[in-house]
Amino acid sequence: MTTLGTGVLRVRHWLRDHPLALDAALALTVLMAMIIGSFAHPGAGEGRSFGTRAPAVSGLLLMVSGAVALIWRRRNPLAVLAVTAGLTVIELVRSDPPAPVVMSTVIALFTVAARTDRPTAWRVGLLTVAALTAAAMLFGPAPWYSQENFGVFAWTGLAGAAGEAVRSRRAFVDAIRERAERAERTRDEEARRRVAEERLRIARDLHDVVAHHIALVNVQAGVAAHVMDRRPDQAKEALAHVREASRSALDELRATVGLLRQSGDPAAPTEPAPGLAVLDALVDTVRRAGLPVEVACTDRRPPLPAAVDLAAYRVIQEALTNVRKHAGPGAKAEVSVVRVGATAEITVIDNGSGGGCDGDGGGHGLLGMRERVTALGGTLTAGPRYGGGFRVHAILPVEARTAESGKPGAAGRTGEDT
User: Fold this and answer.
1) For residues 375 and 412, what is the distance between their CA atoms, to the nearest angstrom?
2) What is the pLDDT of residues 29-77, one digit of tens each?
3) Which H or E element spans position 39?
4) Which neighbouring-strand residues pair with 238?
5) What are phi and psi of 344, to 5 degrees?
6) What is the predicted pLDDT for the residue at 259?
7) Is the Cβ–Cβ distance between 70 and 106 less than 8 Å?
């Protein structure tokens, strides 16, 4: 059943994508129905008999012409209706009994009613029904009260009504779909508006908490520093106020930030930020991944400032990652960390053949390294080496500029993945 259902869905999708093929198949089906119906002869008093007559050549040509016209029923439904109705009138007037060319008109009228607006469908439908019925009753060979003439009226009227019902259903479904899409857009806009309002409220609360309590801490700390030597008791009181204000600030910040945390969120990491102190562990990890690495470092004492230490670690980490991903098989890397006066120079080179970088690709590794180094007041250069391989060279000031290190993307960024 599953295979059968899948096959039916594929056929439906194919026919939906190829409407001309569907209309051709429908035209062939209508033609076969008309030809089969043309062998039936309405006998007086003895009902219909099948096979007692054969369609004339002219009637066969009219049936074929009407069926062929149905192939273009979607592209120009009114023109197809006019052609099939004209062919039907000719057959109703000249033949006794007429061939069922009216079948093509029924399909064409249904298409007009289903694919046009309601006023057009009513006007065209009434005109077609009246014209065919009048032609059959007034000019046909059978008496005006014959059941064949009333059959023409019934079938054409039924076709118009069915097409109108299909058009109304399509309009109803489209209206429901449009209403659902509009409701979805409205819901998204409302959600974004509420998020913006909540962010503004939280930002206002954080500003009030920080501004108020930090101002108190600043004032009381100044008082304590001023009277520390002459009036220790008053200095202790001021420090107690500092402690109380800082505790209140922490409590309010914790409560405010807690509103942003959901029950399933992971706990914040408590380990310190990585630096050159754990460079050996990083190199060991890279070596275990299959990339030989040699390290040359000068004395790491005194340690680098936290922001510079983190930036140096991230530069080495990103450079080794690029070497492992892009340098190709058999590549080797060398890492050098040298303190030169008030700067620290970090160099990572490799002898690979694949470029060892993503500077021209879709990654953001080199861009992230350059932004991190520049934010601390340093410089970074990266490019191919003469003779093959790639070189990354960063110069970091030992004393990072405080004003710039507070910019977004300075010390707060933990490295970009390629």
Assistant:
1) 11
2) 888 888 887 777 665 445 555 555 667 788 788 888 888 888 888 888 8
3) none
4) none
5) -125, 125
6) 63
7) no
d(CA 239, CA 221): 7
- What is the strand order of the sheet 293-297 is part of? 293-297, 333-340, 343-350, 390-397, 379-384
Q: Is the CB of residue 407 less than 8 Å from the CB of residue 396?
A: no
d(CA 79, CA 159): 17
Burial class of residue 333 in the structure, from the number of CB atoms within 10 Å of its CB (0-12 exposed, 13-18 middle, 19+ buried): buried
Report helix, strand or coil for 6.
helix
Q: What is the pLDDT of residues 165-220, one digit of tens each?
A: 888 888 898 889 888 888 888 888 888 888 888 777 677 666 656 655 676 677 67
Distance of CA 366 to the CA centre of its chain: 29
Contact (CB, 8 A) for 224 and 233: no
Which of 344, 416, 340, 406 is closest to 380 using CA atoms? 344
Least confident of 200-214, 371-385, 394-408: 394-408
Structure-token pair, residue 138: 């007034």
Q: How far is CA 106 from the centre of its chain?
A: 43
Q: Please, are residues 312 and 339 in contact by the beta-carbon 8 Å criterion?
A: no
Residues 410, 376 contacting (CB under 8 angstroms): yes
DSSP string, 41-92: EEETTTEEEESS----HHHHHHHHHHHHHGGGTTT-HHHHHHHHHHHHHHHH
H-run or E-run covering 376:
none
DSSP 353: S
Instruction: Report phi then psi at 393, rounded to 5.
Output: -130, 120
What single-letter amino acid sits at 110? F
**Whole-structure pTM value:** 0.44
- What's the rounded Cα separation, in Å, for the pair 149 and 135? 9
Find tokens 């056929």 and name the residue: 11
Tokens (6 digits) for 71 = 């192939």
What's the start-to-end Cα distance of the chain, in Å? 47
Collect all residues with Cβ–Cβ distance below 8 Å to 13 and sequence separation of at least 6.
none
Q: How far is the C-alpha of 25 from the C-alpha of 348, rounded, in Å?
A: 70
